[in-house]
Amino acid sequence: MNVSRSGYYKWKKNKEILNRYEIDRLELEKLIKEIHNKKPSYGYRRINRIILKKTGWIVSDNLVHKVCKSLKIKSKARHYKYKLPGEESIKYENKIKGNWNTTRPFEKVTSDTTTFWFKRKCYDWTYYLDVFNNEIIGSDVRESRHGNNTLNHREALKNMLDNKIKRGYEHLETIFHSDQGAVYSSLSFNKTFDNTSIIRSMSRAGTPTDNPVIESKNGWLKKEMYIDFDINNYNTVQEFIEDIVKDNNEYRPSYALNYKTPVEYRTQLGFP
Fold it and tell me: What's residue 5's pLDDT?
């Protein structure tokens, strides 16, 4: 080979120095690992939106996907299937009928109760979700009564109604959609809505497909609850749930909101 001694040593030296692409790639890998360690449930698209927010880097989803693949990083997500419709038994007419489109906050609200374990005790968490931006706008957690804790439901509802008043939507109509659970269909619970701007709506009995919004949110919340949050870091279940609500509303980018957080999406559109 006709290579000079000086040329050889220059080549050897340059070989040992990382080029700009390699440096950027290492920084990207480091950042992806950091995000994944904090939020193991996030897929590559959501990871990419966090990268953009944290650094301003514009990186293609395809590149993030390739890096995740090379690092053997994969979202720890589980997928949930809906059950087939059961026998119809409507207490309130289904006002939604598959139309979940909204133009403002508190236009359509839905709710459910999910049961979970916290430090060897079982709890019921009832929460209210604003369909406009997937924001949790009311919440209460108590020791489990298998979803039939009346106080749990009433306090979560009170929290939602207080937020509606506080944010200036008291006199605007809100369609509140739920399943036909024992508390949601009880007369005493629904008397709360007398003389309010709340319009009740219900899914058909045994038909979670009538409310895909809450079914999807339940699946994600239960998954992320155990993957992204360390129960051992919390002294009380209330602190645990407060952190999850804050994370959902202020940190978690949503695909349906063009990867904005619920609060970010709402405020950027000028809504209180």
Answer: 66
| Residue 129, beta-bridge partner list | 110, 136
Query: Where does residue 58 rank: exposed (0-12), middle (13-18), buried (19+ CB within 10 A)?
Result: exposed
For residue 157, the tally of other CB atoms under 10 A from its CB is 22
Angle at 252 between CA 249 and CA 258, to 5 degrees: 100
Tens of pLDDT, residues 188-225: 888 888 889 999 999 987 787 888 999 889 888 888 88
DSSP 253: -
Count Cβ neighbours within 10 Å for each residue of 166-184 and write b for 16 or more, e otherwise.
Answer: eeebeeeebbbbbbbbebb
Euclidean distance between CA atoms 190 and 32, whole angstroms:
47
Nearest to 129 by CA among 83, 97, 163, 154: 163
d(CA 181, CA 110): 13
Using an 8 Å Cβ cutoff, are 225 and 122 in contact? no
Prediction pTM value: 0.71
